[in-house]
Amino acid sequence: MYHEHILGVVVKNKMAVEGVMVSYNYSEDNEHANIVTVSASGIRFANRWVLTHGSILSPIKGAKVIQNCKGKPMLNEEFYMKLPEIYVTCEKRKSKKSSVYEDVEMLSRERSVQSGELEHSSYQIRVLTGRICHVWQCPILDRCVDDILYSWTVGHRDGDMQNQTQLGKALLSVFVLIDLESTVQELKPLRPLSALLDLVRTPPDRGSGLEVHSTPFGCEVFLNAVTRGSICGVVGKRPVLLLTDAATALGSEGGPVFTEGPTKELIGIVVCSVSWWRGEWVGLTLIAPLVSVISAKLRVVPPKLTTPLAYPHNAYGDILDKIDKMTVLVRCGAAWGAGVYLGGGFVMTCAHVVKNQTIWTHLLPAIFAEEAAEKGESVLAAGYPYFNEHNLEDLTPTVTSGHINNVSPSMLQTSCCVQSGFSGGPIYRITSKNSVEVLAIIVSNAKTETGACYPFINMAVPARVFKNLIQQFIADRDVTKLNLLENNKEIIQSQWRLLPYRSKI
């Protein structure tokens, strides 16, 4: 699944839905010289309402009370009255029907260019003004943060990382509703959220394609850009959280997430585009399924579909079941990685991962590729960037998609999203028989001397290097044969040391 940026579009189902940019001006000391513009992405629906993510509140002093709320009523009327005016930037379009915005002056700014090619929508914007009318914390997402993301650093900026992380985690499960028609804060969020619940759909299965519509960096130039990827992992049975390898950036929080295909069903909202684990950047975007978030808010059972939806672009289907049975979680104390089950109770992983492992009984021995990898071919990577300590029985690997960037007899490089928890895991090739075979074992992603990590640039050992020796060892248990796996040729050693020294990593 390739990542792609294209011009955003309006998605129409029962009512219009579009991605927008949400922003406001803020100063801690009320000094005009210190005013900063705070921005995020958002979902505009039914013309009047905008839903965005709680990260937009992070600079506001009063937002720190959210850290101790844990799902309880958080904010009083005084808090809402002190909130700044909100600006919602969207693409300017000619409406077929007259609307309140054509009769009432609600526009703070409108930019139009009428000059030949400059009439294109990318040069024209509309900015609407509104008010935050309701802020709430989703309890099921908050529990997910405590159970699974407890060791992650979320959305920190330069400065006090510890405080930023605490606030970032607290805000990860917070959502904000904006009213574009009223300048007076009213606590009447249930009707618009109920209307939105009628619109959203249950997310498709892991492996399905999706689109994220967002405005990275809060910059109008990137207004409502689209990135594509697949659902790499699903947390919880509801589900509670989706992971995707669709590339996003700061400012994408609050952006709508749709299924791929002509219908583009609304399924989720971005809750985290930037996070770290043990100082390493996690390249996956976190998405909250709207059907779960809104149902929890309204305290209703998530609606069941009367007819199953035919979601397109699930490129993997039954292949994921085979991947789940070949890929294992390997643990040692507080550290963990991934491995490939070889059969007979044997697991292959990287030496730097661990020596103790958790193995399940339902595993399927992996099949190793006979044909060499080819530059450009599509592949999958599997690993465990997270897991719930209290529910290992239902654990499935996170599966990311990409292609082979480079090939040598001793190293494969891929564009799959890989981070801590993927080491020792497999790079899979999908075969013509709708199955998978192991092309390589993941070693690491790229990291600079300054500590910056690049999850989409990573290295793996080709299966052709070791598969025959491993199979012979399993057959006769002769440990001395494994010594042949060590290769001291200088060209190979230098390749894995990422030499020459002029290299930037």
How does the SSE layout of this entry go?
Blueprint: E1 11-12, E2 16-26, E3 36-45, E4 49-53, H1 77-81, E5 86-91, H2 100-103, E6 107-111, E7 125-137, H3 139-147, E8 152-154, H4 161-172, E9 174-179, H5 190-199, E10 209-214, E11 225-235, E12 241-244, E13 256-259, E14 266-272, E15 275-277, E16 280-282, E17 285-289, H6 290-298, H7 319-326, E18 327-332, E19 335-343, E20 346-348, E21 378-383, E22 398-408, E23 411-414, E24 426-430, E25 436-447, E26 453-462, H8 463-476, H9 490-496
Antiparallel strand pairs: 1-2, 2-3, 2-5, 3-4, 4-9, 5-7, 6-7, 7-9, 8-15, 10-11, 10-13, 11-12, 12-17, 13-14, 14-17, 15-16, 18-19, 19-20, 21-22, 21-24, 22-23, 23-26, 24-25, 25-26
Q: Looking across the biggest beta sheet, what order are the strands in?
A: 2-3-4-9-7-5
Largest sheet: number of strands, sense, barrel closure:
6 strands, antiparallel, barrel
Distance between the termini: 26 Å
Strand content: 25-35%
Helix coverage percent: 10-25%
Helices, by number, come to 9
Question: Low-confidence segments, ≥5 residues, pLDDT <50?
Answer: 1-15, 101-108
Task: State mean pLDDT (0 to 100 scale).
Answer: 80
Number-wise, the strands total 26
Q: Cα-atom Rg, whole angstroms?
A: 24 Å
* Structural classification: alpha+beta
Shape: elongated
